[in-house]
Write a sequence for this structure.
């Protein structure tokens, strides 16, 4: 088991290295000059531009710049913002925590609602509950996130006056953006849960348990849910990563000061270090989540451990 974990960790390091290279090259190939952004359009002193380029290391060959970049991120140094001159980590940390808070609350809602709807739809197959769950899933997948957010603002905040419409503060300001962000995840989790449980329903050990007179509640909790959880784990892990990476629309609609808005603003300002640090952080979260799900798979299913060895 330890050897399998070591192989997974080693592969993850290579993935992170490849991610850093893609992020580094992507920004260098986009047209535009960060020096011009930093100095402003009225700057006309070539000597000043050259001194700043040397200070930022942008005068060196691209391979040298990348090697320097990798050495710095290996020790946790993401550089300094070109515009604010503050540490990238210092600028990103509070925004990343805000996004993580929003994503965790959204994922909790999606898990509670999605698992409940999926389980109910599987147990009451072809009933009104099943059809209702399908409609909820279709709405969650089809409706644009920004439209859902605006609709909730208009209905809950403007018409009913129950919750604040935007901004960061207490739990009352977190409810609407979390409900907006979790809508697609509820749809996906509920349908995957239904499909996974229906597949387990057809297994022989479920039929044997029912033939022995085991109650339906016991069959559900002891046999169906434990054996149908693996596909759901994958979806939940990926959805958490999508929430962290895709929260920018929700953050914009609800004026939530998160990481997505920071990255978008940095892209417009050509602030290379902020963009690199933000994208690298989001990508690293995806990679780590996949690693955790992979290891949970191995822990939950002995057959996978035997195949991996």
């Amino acid at each position: 088991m330890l050897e399998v974990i070591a192989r997974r960790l080693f592969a993850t390091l290579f993935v992170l290295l490849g991610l850093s290279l893609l992020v580094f090259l992507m920004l260098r190939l986009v047209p535009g000059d960060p020096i011009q952004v930093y100095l402003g359009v009225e700057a006309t002193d070539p000597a000043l531009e050259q001194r700043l380029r040397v200070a930022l290391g942008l005068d060196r060959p691209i391979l040298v710049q990348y090697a320097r970049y990798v050495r710095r991120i290996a020790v946790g140094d993401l550089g300094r913002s070109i515009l604010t001159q503050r540490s990238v980590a210092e600028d990103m940390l509070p925004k990343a925590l805000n996004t993580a808070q929003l994503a965790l609350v959204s994922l909790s809602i999606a898990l509670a609602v999605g698992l409940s709807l999926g389980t109910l739809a599987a147990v009451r197959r072809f009933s009104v509950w099943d059809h209702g769950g399908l409609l909820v899933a279709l709405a969650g997948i089809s409706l644009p996130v920004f439209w859902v957010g605006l609709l909730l603002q208009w209905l809950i905040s403007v018409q009913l006056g129950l919750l604040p419409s935007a901004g960061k503060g207490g739990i009352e300001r977190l409810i609407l953006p979390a409900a907006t962000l979790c809508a697609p995840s509820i749809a996906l989790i509920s349908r995957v849960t239904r499909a996974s449980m229906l597949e387990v329903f057809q297994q022989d050990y479920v039929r044997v348990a029912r033939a022995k007179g085991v109650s339906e509640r016991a069959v559900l909790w002891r046999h169906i849910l434990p054996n149908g959880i693996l596909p759901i784990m994958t979806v939940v892990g990926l959805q958490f990563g999508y929430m962290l990476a895709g929260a920018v629309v929700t953050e914009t609609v609800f004026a939530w000061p998160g990481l997505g808005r920071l990255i978008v603003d940095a892209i417009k300002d050509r602030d290379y270090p902020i963009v690199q640090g933000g994208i690298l952080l989001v990508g690293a979260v995806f990679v780590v989540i996949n690693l955790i799900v992979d290891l949970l798979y191995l822990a939950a299913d002995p057959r996978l451990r035997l195949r991996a060895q």
Notes: Residues 88-123 form the longest helix (36 residues).
